[in-house]
Specification:
With 317 residues, the chain is mainly alpha-helical. It has 17 helices and no strands. The protein is 85% helix and 0% strand.
Length: 317
Amino acid sequence: MEAIRLFKLLDRNQRNTFVACFLGWALDAFDFFLLTFVIVPMAHDFGTSIAELSYAITLTLAMRPVGAFIFGLLGDRFGRRFPLMVDIIFYSLMELLTAFSPNYSVFLIFRALYGIGMGGEWGLGASLAMETLPTEARGLFSGILQQGYAFGYLLAAVMYWIVFPFFGWRGLFVAGALPAFLVLYIRARVPESPVWLRQQHAIADFWRQLLIVLKRHWALFLYVILLMTAFNAMSHGTQDMYQTFLGEQRHYGVTQKAATGIIYAFGAICGGTVVGHLSQKWGRRRSIVLTAAFGTALIPLWVFSPGFALLVIGGFA
């Protein structure tokens, strides 16, 4: 199979780099989605409404572009590897501090700062991975790398199921600091991007070329921004408050909510992998249209199903 052949192309450094970048992205999502499982108990403890507590999600996402810009500049100046380690430590620290938030206001500050770290991870990790992998393997592995986000949701569901019943939401955020240990692996096993090493003295020329590209292709640039905005609206608009919906309107307990999240994330991983492969034959635009239409058609099954089994089937599909 083609996938097996591409896997065999990778040397040890390339495998280590990809694993580190995949885990960095997955654990970033893991930390983000932990909050979505515990909005109700946190709102109760802070004396706020569920709607007010959910502002933390909005604030986190709003700060992601700030983090992407800051760590993108650092990545161009200092390489991909070192800023990535700093970023992982930073967002893990903010996750840990969230566990010790004394009140709602301080909690919002920590989530805003976490959003900066969350925004920085993807650009650094994706750049490091794609600049290290062989050119012909980048298509397959870019698709696998993106599935790290769904894998992070799956990990969050499992951690919620294991930790929350015994240690509450604060214990859950303490567990969310575990990604910091990934830095040890990166420090020991992951080399710097070979592309950055070759081009580190051409940063000024990079900015000049960037301005030229934006001037020539500004319409395409705006289109991509709008497209990704729509994708993120579909993603976060459907899943960020889904666990709250399951608890408040369906009255599901921890086990049912966690099981739904695990199956939901597993479906996302399968779908992303399969459609990513099929897009080689179907084309990118056709794949986007078909999957968006299919997902929209499944919303009633995913939300309005009368029983748990059908709800889970809708979530997986």
